[in-house]
């Protein structure tokens, strides 16, 4: 599903955010990406959906050669990837329904299909009855569920979650993780960058740990720290 070969990312200030990163992630995996601030995990996440472009190396995501695709092809790869952010990135003047529907409208989904798809996905993430609520009328956990629904509505092969629990309390954080685990159980590959040690340690899933722009550790049932 995802393959990186000797990937480097050097920013304009000379900082090597990624150094010779090579890794494979298979279809259906749930992977935590961990590491201290500045370790490279955010850059790693961003190059997967072409928010950043590698300086050198090869990246394949769901059959696309990410490093070599043309600019006009980027929307094609992004349709196969759903991205969930720490700060939700919801449009504040739109309802939950409209925020999710927007993801379908921009790819010109027929209007007659949008309503059923949006209502179905909102129900799946536990927001039935909240369709007409705007972001400021929802809790942080509910806003994140809208964000997840928006990421899911195109039936992506991969969900990339960048610190999705960073702004949430512990109980709500676990609700979001369990939702992502359910999505993964249905067959979607999930990659989640996080600083949440408790979640990583208790989940016992694959952990890829970054340090200094390199993969320091890759464990099938890992913890947040080495001693785990």
TrEMBL record:
The keyword ATP-binding applies. It comes from the Bacteria. GO terms for molecular function: ATP binding; ATP hydrolysis activity; transmembrane transporter activity. Residues 2-228 form the ABC transporter domain. One of its GO terms (biological process) is cell division. It is a peripheral membrane protein. Its main location: membrane. SMART domains: AAA. It is found in: Cell membrane. Keywords: ATP-binding, Cell cycle, Cell division, Cell membrane, Membrane, Nucleotide-binding. Pfam families: ABC_tran. GO terms for cellular component: plasma membrane. Transmembrane segments: none annotated. Homodimer. Forms a membrane-associated complex with FtsX. Part of the ABC transporter FtsEX involved in cellular division. Belongs to the ABC transporter superfamily. This is Cell division ATP-binding protein FtsE.
